[in-house]
Design a protein that fits this description.
The protein is of the alpha/beta class. The protein folds into three domains: about 120 residues, Rossmann fold, CATH 3.40.50; about 160 residues, Rossmann fold (3-Layer(aba) Sandwich), CATH 3.40.50.720; about 80 residues, 2-Layer Sandwich (Ribosomal Protein S8, Chain: A, domain 1). The protein has 16 helices and 14 strands. The chain has a six-stranded parallel beta sheet with strand order 7-6-8-9-10-11. Helix 5 runs parallel beside helix 6, helix 6 packs antiparallel against helix 16 and helix 13 runs parallel beside helix 16. The longest helix is centred in the first third of the chain and has 19 residues. The chain starts with a strand and ends with a strand.
């Protein structure tokens, strides 16, 4: 069986080797003639999967190692009887930890304590629910907006967008949708942005086009009081470099790029393919994970400083911000390729649960906070 896979899906050759011959290709710009003879197609969000790519091919299963699926024409796949699977929740923990890292960095820069602040969470699915738990562990009050989830019932604490706009921190975790009762394309538009309260922090790790980047660029030319963290951009990989210069933290669509999350995504589409084919599972991501980093906490450390040390030891968003800003020094014609290269050559990053945190004595409040953020403490 011939299998075509995005070269940036980690361990994809090891995972799928038992199912057939795996050929690795760049995901962006994948062409019909490259996939024509394949039976399995494995992609990420940079590959548009539709009639133009697949018509006349032998493809009978598509796996996308992503939580989103706005790059896939699911109606076309269904009409052709092509199996399809994504990796929902695979990188949710990583994306939530990105939000925590960004908040820790901004709190240190600006001298605020997250405890007692309000956080508005737009989208409370796999990622947003994890963000909520971590921010509540920091002592923040969370306001949740998710109309599709609200319509399903089971919760009674949802608020409307106007209430979310009163929050000190707003973080977005919705899929990109262009139609239906709750479209998210440019959900965050000029009108939304104009309502941000003074000193607000705004974070987008969802999809670039959920935010009107031109409107945000314009707003930042007028307001210096708000802080912006962007991991996703309209027009990727050719992003708005003037906007990059204005945001507080900017990164190249890597919020969910922990090694743990990426391998989880590979395993999820591998298992889905095995089920589709009726083939026994023979590979596990656990075999590919190295030991995590370690951190020794000193007794008596201030709880917020100690928590920040643990977070930034595991993942410091400033490193990714610095790498992306290097793009600004390049000629304009080289910047898009640099954006993609930063994603392809992303360094190994582990999730909080994999950090070996050790302490001889620990304040109960700190231990509770670290556990709430997802760390495992060893005494």
């Amino acid at each position: 069986m011939k299998i075509i896979a995005d070269e940036n899906i980690p361990c994809v050759r090891q995972a799928f080797a038992s199912l057939g011959e795996v050929t690795l290709l760049p995901g962006r710009g994948m062409r019909p003639q490259q996939v024509r003879d394949a039976e399995l197609l494995l992609v990420r969000s940079v590959t548009r999967v539709d009639r133009d790519l697949l018509e006349g091919s032998r493809v009978r299963f598509v796996g996308s190692a992503t939580i989103g699926f706005d790059h896939v024409d699911r109606d076309y796949l269904q009409s052709q009887g092509i199996g399809f699977s994504t990796a929902p929740g695979s990188n949710a923990t990583s994306a939530a930890e990105y939000v925590v890292s960004a908040l820790m960095v901004l709190a240190q820069r600006q001298g605020f304590d997250p405890a007692g602040m309000t956080a508005g969470i737009i989208g409370c699915g796999n990622v947003g629910s994890r963000v909520r738990r971590k921010l509540e562990a920091l002592g923040m009050q969370c306001l949740v907006n998710d109309p599709p989830l609200q319509a399903q019932g089971g919760h009674d604490d949802f608020v409307d967008l106007q209430q979310v706009l009163q929050a000190d921190v707003i973080t977005v975790h919705v899929p990109l949708t262009r139609s239906g009762p709750h479209p998210t394309l440019h959900l965050v538009d000029a009108e939304f942005l104009a309502c941000l309260k003074p000193g607000a922090v705004f974070i987008n790790t969802a999809r670039g086009a959920v935010v009107d980047n031109a409107a945000l660029d314009s707003l930042l030319g007028e307001r210096a009081d708000i802080s912006i963290v962007l991991d996703v951009w309209e027009g990727e990989p050719a992003i708005n470099c003037e906007l990059l210069e204005k945001v507080d933290l900017g990164t190249p669509h890597i919020a969910g790029y922990s090694l743990d999350g990426k391998l989880r995504g590979t395993e999820m589409i591998y298992r889905a393919a095995c089920e589709f084919l009726g083939t026994p599972v023979q590979w596990s991501a656990a075999t590919e994970l190295p030991p995590g980093p370690s951190l020794e906490l000193a007794a008596g450390d201030d709880w917020l400083d100690a928590a920040r040390a643990a977070v930034l030891e595991c993942y410091d968003v400033r490193a990714d911000d610095a790498r992306l800003r290097h793009l600004l020094m390049l000629p304009p014609e080289e910047r898009a390729a640099c954006f993609d290269r930063l994603r392809k050559e992303y360094p190994v990053r582990r999730e909080f649960a994999e950090l070996d945190v050790r302490a001889t004595r620990m304040d109960a409040r700190l231990e509770q906070l670290l556990a709430g953020l997802g760390f495992t403490i060893r005494s």
